């Protein structure tokens, strides 16, 4: 059919006047025929079954019955009149009841004609009744497109109150199928259709709105979900390919003296296989003439820093500068200290730039960056300031991506004429399914192995009432020479109260662990950063045994001797936060512990979170649970959730379809990157439309 008809404004559809058109636009964003056809039901009422009156159960469920009205009467009541019809089939009788609209019903009802009625039944005075049933003459019912499974469309209060009921939408949909003759252009290639035994586009659209039965509905849903996910994947993978082909990157073809010398003489430990694999993947990218844009996922403690360092050495070997950006000052400082230690015997000039760098030092850093004397700059987002100019930035590494947005990534891109290679490191394990949808334009490497000798952290859940036992345990651990974190929640909205909790907690810990035997550090957001650093420093050096803190220590700090993590009010933390916090311990060879303290009052979600933490140390498993509890939009924050604005597929539930879609998108693009083979012409056509529109459902029909 002529695809242009789908662009017809909705006003032209028979049954849609100017008022309805306005409502459809404002309430449902339905502007055109196409928008309406892609307005999918969110559930279905199963009308495949007809009940007999003697089969009715007293469970008040929705049922559909064929029968006749044999009698109609008005019953006077204290509170008003009601209209009561006696409805019979060959097995028995019941009542239909109306409290409103009597006149209209009296006029339209046909006595002794077969009707199909639908609604909820009640049991009253020894008889079933159905208030305000949906009714249709059996003859109409049989002719109607709206056969078995009845769709229920999303709606709004305003729509219902203005008379655009589900039934009206349904009628409009029927009208649309009449006007378009139910023929829609196919948008998938025949090989995909055959391979996956998908039903045609026309059939899918028909059955999503007017499913004949459960089987056909399932087929329609599968086909449309696949299509939605397929085109998203096609788009993401194509973007990635284009970037690789078009965006020239610096070619790091040398493995030079620094990298080799470091590897031979200063690497403090044997790399894990996972680390080796990842470095190889990165080196492949760097030598491929294309700009690298890679996401490195690795659970807390998996050893991402050393990978970052070695890649930076490669950049320097090839005559470039590199930078490493961390989300907090403490973390930047720690990276700087750690990396400085590792490379101090090498000929590498490395500096730290943060918000608190003194002006004079800052000026000197700027100068050295511009002259090219400075090899590695480590810092916070201070690096992003326009004043910070590099002579030749070849590689930018971002640690803990979830703290930075896409905007920052792009700022780094533009520090040079040729964009630097970008490596984003994250310890927030993003479930693969989600990563595929969100970061389809990034390549992904995973460090899926912890350095050897680590004992998994033992995690337990304790109630506040057991606090004394917990204190005893802390004392024993400190006796063995270990250090302890005690973390309090700090949620922005209740900052004052949280701050008070923290201070009360601190006071009680000071009482339990008196000086001079015990030394306690405290770090929280209201402290000056110099003071924070001082307190951190004391803990890192082992001068204090206990670190009381808010979640500022959440990211990245590394104190291998700390082996106990106590999390207060653990029910108030999200799963990924809990996991990050737990990752602060278990970094040395000693057995480490994580104790989740809560009150007795716990919501179901909190219970699930705590149980998950106790059950597993696997960040990816935790992330999957988190995704299920919170939904995808929440996890990545709003700026990235646009991709997840799916019309019909569900990223969590339709995981398998997503995998299939990705597999096909990859396979097709691998054989035919420009989609120019005749076989793929239909994909290219649809994809071309896709580029023009934002909402993917505007182009796949
Ligand atoms: P993360 O991935 O969380 O950033 P880090 O890079 O901070 O982890 O590494 C955590 C700890 O593990 C550090 O003390 C680091 O020196 C150590 N480490 C990293 N890789 C190895 C390895 N291959 N063998 C032994 N220890 C390692
Ligand atoms: Mg780290």
Automatic annotation (TrEMBL):
Recorded family membership: Belongs to the helicase family. RecG subfamily.
SMART domains: DEXDc, HELICc
Domain of life of the source: Bacteria
A Gene Ontology BP annotation from the UniProt entry: DNA repair
Name under which the protein is recorded: ATP-dependent DNA helicase RecG
Catalysed transformations (reactions): ATP + H2O = ADP + phosphate + H(+); Couples ATP hydrolysis with the unwinding of duplex DNA by translocating in the 3'-5' direction
EC number: 5.6.2.4
Function statement: Plays a critical role in recombination and DNA repair. Helps process Holliday junction intermediates to mature products by catalyzing branch migration. Has replication fork regression activity, unwinds stalled or blocked replication forks to make a HJ that can be resolved. Has a DNA unwinding activity characteristic of a DNA helicase with 3'-5' polarity.
InterPro entries: ATP-dep_DNA_helicase_RecG, DEAD/DEAH_box_helicase_dom, Helicase_ATP-bd, Helicase_C-like, NA-bd_OB-fold, P-loop_NTPase, RecG/Mfd, RecG_dom3_C
DNA-binding listed as a keyword: yes
Enzyme kind, highest EC tier: isomerase
UniProt keyword list: ATP-binding, DNA damage, DNA recombination, DNA repair, DNA-binding, Helicase, Hydrolase, Isomerase, Nucleotide-binding
Originating species: Abyssalbus ytuae
Gene this protein is translated from: recG
Location of the Helicase C-terminal domain: 466-633
A GO term, aspect molecular function: hydrolase activity
